[in-house]
C-alpha cells in the first residue's frame, strides 16, 4: 500500500511518501480502504516527537479516516463488506489501507454527506465533548474561544450558539474574524487587540486550544468560572499560579477526547449527536481543503502555518 511515513522525528522534511507492507488484520478487526484521511494538530505534535505515538517502523501518522470495509477479521459478524465507515482513534491512518478494530467503527448517518462526515469526525467530536462533557454551559452564558476559526473552533462556536450560548472570541486575521462573525459569534477581536483585556473577568468559560494564550484566558474568566484547556496549537502554555486561581475561585478543566470514547456505543452516540447539528443545518463549515496523500507534506505545512481555517483532508487515490 501507499503511505505517508517518517523514520525519525522532526520538521516537515522528515515526511516521506512510498510503498509499505499492507497491514495484517486481527480477528476482531476490519481492513478499510481509505477515501479521506483527516489531518489533526496532534499529527504535528507526533511528527515533532512531542506526543504519544504507537510503536511502528517506520512511523505512520494519523488516527482519523473515512473509507470502505474490504476485508473482515475471522470473528467479525454483522458487518457487510463494502460498508463505508468513519474512525477517529485508530493509528496508522496516513495510508491507503488501515486495520480498524470493530469497536472503533463509527457508522455514517444516512443524511450526512461523506465529505462532511470525514471533515467533522475528530474536530467535531472534540467540540462536542468540550461543550457537553467539560464546560456544560447554561443557556445565555457568555463564553470566549481562543483560535475561534480553527477546525475545532468553528464547530464549537456554532454548536454553542445553537445551544443558546453567547460566544465571543479571538483570532489572528481579519478574514478569520469575519468568518466567525458570520458563523454567529457576538464579537471577535484580533488576538493582539488590547480591547480584549476590557473583558477581563467576564466569561463563564474560556476555551483555549492555543496554549500560549493561557494567562489571557485565565484573566478573561469570571469568578467561579473555568478555562477549558484542550491543546497548544500556538505553543506550550505558561506555568499556572494556583494561588491566583484560588483567589477568584477559578478552575482549569482539561480533557482528551479519547478518554471519552470508551466503547463502540459511546463513539456512535456521540457522533450521531454531532451529526444532527449538521443534518439540521445548525452548523455549517467551510469546504475542507483536500490534498493527495502523495502531497501530504503540503497538507502538514498548511496546518502548521496556522493559516488554515477549517478541516484539512488527504485522499489516498
Ligand atoms: N483535547 C483533545 O482531545 C483535542 C482533540 C483534538 C484537537 N485538540 C486540540 O485542539 C486545538 C485545535 O485543533 P484544530 O484541529 O482545530 O487545529 P486548527 O484548525 O489548526 O486550529 C488551531 C488554531 O489555533 C490558532 N493558532 C494560534 N497560534 C498558532 C500557531 N502558532 N500555529 C498554528 N495555529 C495557531 C489558529 O487560530 P487563529 O489564527 O484564529 O488564532 C488555528 O486556526 C489544537 O491545540 C489541538 O491539539 C484537542
TrEMBL record:
Keyword terms: NADP, Oxidoreductase
One GO cellular component term: cytosol
Pfam families, sorted: ADH_N (PF08240), ADH_zinc_N (PF00107)
Record-linked SUPFAM superfamilies: GroES-like, NAD(P)-binding Rossmann-fold domains
Membrane-traversing stretches: none
Gene3D superfamilies on file: Medium-chain alcohol dehydrogenases, catalytic domain, NAD(P)-binding Rossmann-like Domain
Entry GO MF terms: mRNA 3'-UTR AU-rich region binding; NADPH binding; quinone reductase (NADPH) activity
Record organism: Liquorilactobacillus capillatus DSM 19910
Annotated Enoyl reductase (ER) domain residues: 10-314
UniProt cross-references to InterPro entries, sorted A to Z: ADH-like_C, ADH-like_N, ER, GroES-like_sf, NAD(P)-bd_dom_sf
Protein name as it appears in the record: Oxidoreductase
Keyword field contains NADP: yes
Amino acid at each position: 500500500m501507499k503511505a505517508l511515513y517518517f523514520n525519525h522525528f522532526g520538521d516537515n522534511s522528515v515526511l516521506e511518501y512510498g510503498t509499505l507492507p499492507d497491514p495484517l488484520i486481527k480477528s476482531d478487526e476490519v481492513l478499510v480502504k481509505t477515501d479521506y484521511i483527516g489531518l489533526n494538530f496532534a499529527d504535528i505534535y507526533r511528527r515533532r516527537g512531542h506526543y504519544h505515538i504507537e510503536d511502528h517502523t517506520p512511523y505512520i501518522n494519523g488516527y482519523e479516516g473515512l473509507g470502505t470495509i474490504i476485508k473482515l477479521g475471522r470473528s467479525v459478524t454483522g458487518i457487510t463488506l463494502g460498508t463505508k465507515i468513519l474512525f477517529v482513534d485508530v493509528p496508522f491512518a496516513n495510508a491507503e489501507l488501515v486495520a480498524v478494530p470493530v469497536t472503533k467503527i463509527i457508522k455514517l448517518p444516512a443524511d450526512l454527506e461523506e465529505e462532511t462526515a470525514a471533515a467533522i469526525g475528530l474536530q467535531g467530536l472534540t467540540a462536542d465533548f468540550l461543550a457537553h462533557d467539560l464546560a456544560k454551559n447554561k443557556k445565555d452564558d457568555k463564553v470566549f474561544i481562543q483560535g475561534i476559526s480553527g477546525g475545532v473552533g468553528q464547530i464549537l462556536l456554532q454548536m454553542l450558539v445553537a445551544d443558546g450560548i453567547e460566544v465571543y472570541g479571538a483570532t489572528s486575521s481579519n478574514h478569520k474574524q469575519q468568518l466567525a462573525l458570520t458563523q454567529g459569534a457576538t464579537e471577535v477581536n484580533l488576538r493582539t487587540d488590547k480591547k480584549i483585556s476590557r473583558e477581563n473577568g467576564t466569561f463563564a468559560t474560556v476555551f483555549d486550544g492555543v496554549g500560549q494564550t493561557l494567562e489571557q484566558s485565565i484573566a478573561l474568566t469570571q469568578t467561579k468560572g473555568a478555562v477549558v484547556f484542550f491543546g497548544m496549537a500556538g505553543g506550550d502554555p505558561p506555568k499556572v499560579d494556583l494561588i491566583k486561581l484560588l483567589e477568584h475561585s477559578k478552575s482549569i478543566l482539561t480533557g482528551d477526547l479519547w478518554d471519552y470514547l470508551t466503547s463502540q456505543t459511546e463513539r456512535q452516540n456521540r457522533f450521531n449527536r454531532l451529526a444532527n447539528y449538521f443534518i439540521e443545518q445548525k452548523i455549517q463549515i467551510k469546504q475542507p481543503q483536500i490534498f493527495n496523500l502523495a502531497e501530504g507534506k503540503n497538507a502538514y505545512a498548511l496546518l502548521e502555518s496556522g493559516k488554515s481555517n477549517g478541516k484539512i483532508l488527504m485522499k489516498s487515490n
